[in-house]
Amino acid sequence: MDCQKIVKTLKHKHFIRVPNKGNCFEDGAVIYAKEIKTNIFLLFVILKDIEIENIKALIAHFDSFSSIGEKEPEQIMFYLSIKDKKDLHYFEKYLKISDN
After folding, report:
1. Residue 93 in 3-state DSSP?
2. pTM of the full structure
3. Is the model more confident about 65 or about 81?
């Protein structure tokens, strides 16, 4: 899985990188978030380890944008762990990852 293409696409789709300051996500995880409705956010959490690349996609309710990465979400409405290209297939239409 090419995390660089995914990150490039997220930035193009106006996702904002959020500091990971709390205990909600793994150490070293990179968080990209976009508000899709008032205080409802679509998040992509990217964890790059030596041996694996793991992406978590979730739709969650937070108090505010600034609480993402610091506090647990109020509610998780959708969660998907993407560990290989087969899992990523479900998001390809949304992400529209280009080869550029």
Report:
1. helix
2. 0.80
3. 65
